[in-house]
Design goal:
- By secondary structure, the chain is α+β, with helices and mostly antiparallel strands.
- It folds into two domains: 163 residues, no CATH class; 151 residues.
- 52% of the residues lie in helices and 10% in strands.
- The protein contains 18 helices and ten strands.
- The strands form four sheets. The protein has a four-stranded mixed sheet, with helices on both faces. A two-stranded antiparallel sheet has the order 3-4. A two-stranded antiparallel sheet has the order 5-6.
- Helix 9 packs antiparallel against helix 10 and helix 9 packs antiparallel against helix 13.
- The longest helix is centred in the middle third of the chain and has 22 residues.
- The termini are far apart.
Length: 357
């Protein structure tokens, strides 16, 4: 294996040095866009020396008009399969089982220069074509993992003037959706904020640890939402969190929570974290000021930040009749499910779309 190079750079160079010249020579009349989108650690920019063992290598997504796709989509694949080099910068352009690079010394190459129409690609990937608009339900049902891959994917050429428009439309939630999701995320913290102590109070240290880990995850998600960053799925969740602005202050505290042997020590550190979160919320200046404080949970000696205060303040900011009509504030698909299949595969996501009807 040659020395590792980041996948997005490899695909960028592969397009400009190999694919673009062949498209110009053999299909000069076809207007198209070219990018590296979709799933994959390389799209997110988190790939490393282990990544080339699967779903990685020289690859490009070509987007052509619907008419051209029907007329020459197959021809583009066939020409490239007979004209691309067998290797590029030492990496094979031939793929076995569609995801493993494999050696080859004669044509045709089974390559990963995939041709799509814009509509077919995005309808398959996220369930709708953003060029036609993005509804409130579209926002809520689209996993943050996919929204992040669209933002982190690289556009090499946008002859159709569509991909950059789509990235701009999906850059971040409209304010009403953002307020609603923030409210639902604070609600998730609110629902279990006394349980670290309650479990410990009955001698259930294991249960307390489990709840503490759940709270840490919800806190991290809240931080992504407050910093307007789409979170990747679990494999890269912590890595991406470490790059948030708040991580320098919060990450040491969150790590310490997992080291504590007694629930009172976990509760104490969580209280520090809750105060930081409250300050972060106030710095957003999207609701009235909410005093950062830790108090008892009703008449029980369990320290909580009373997260419902943040929920109610954010709910008051939501103006959308559609969002306000939802019977339960379940939030986006990532807030009421925890499934890699749903985060990554639109076919799985379709099975729960009725939840917003």
């Amino acid at each position: 294996m040659p020395p590792f190079v980041k996948g997005r750079q490899l695909c960028h160079d592969f397009y400009f040095e190999c694919v673009a010249p062949l498209m110009e020579r053999h299909f000069p009349e076809v207007h198209y866009s070219a990018a590296r989108l979709g799933g994959g650690s390389d799209v997110l920019g988190f790939d490393d020396h282990r990544s080339p063992d699967h779903d990685w290598g020289p690859q490009v997504d070509l987007f052509i008009s619907t008419g051209d796709f029907e007329a020459v989509g197959d021809s583009i694949y066939d020409v490239l399969s007979k004209k691309l080099p067998f290797t590029f910068k030492g990496f094979s352009t031939h793929f076995v089982d569609d995801y493993l690079m494999g050696n080859i010394s004669k044509y045709p190459i089974i390559h990963r220069v995939r041709t799509h129409s814009v509509d077919s690609y995005f309808t398959h990937y996220i369930g709708f074509n953003p060029v036609n608009g993005v509804s409130e339900i579209d926002w809520l049902r689209t996993p943050v993992q996919k929204l992040r891959t669209i933002q982190s994917g690289k556009i090499f050429h946008d002859g159709l003037s569509a991909l950059q428009e789509i990235k701009s439309k999906l850059k971040w939630y409209p304010d009403d959706i953002w307020y609603y999701i923030l409210a639902c995320q604070w609600r998730r913290i609110d629902q279990e904020e006394p349980f670290v102590a309650r479990c410990g109070d009955v001698g259930d240290e294991l249960g307390s640890r489990v709840v503490a880990s759940r709270q840490v995850k919800e806190i991290m998600h809240l931080c992504f939402y407050m910093e307007k960053e789409f979170a990747p799925y679990s494999k890269w969740f912590g890595t991406a969190f470490s790059r948030l602005q708040c991580a320098q202050k919060l990450q040491p505290l969150l790590n310490r929570i997992f080291l504590q042997e007694h629930w009172k020590d976990r509760e104490k550190i969580l209280s520090e974290v809750y105060l930081i979160l409250a300050a972060m919320h106030n710095n957003l200046s999207i609701t009235e000021y909410i005093e950062p404080k830790i108090t008892n949970f009703h008449n029980r000696p369990f320290a909580v930040p009373q997260s419902d205060r943040f929920v109610q303040a954010l709910v008051r900011k939501v103006q959308s009749p559609r969002l306000n009509s939802l019977k339960r504030p379940i939030g986006s698909v990532n807030q009421f499910t925890d499934s890699t299949d749903i985060s990554c595969w639109n076919s799985a996501l379709e099975s729960i779309s009725s939840v917003y009807k």
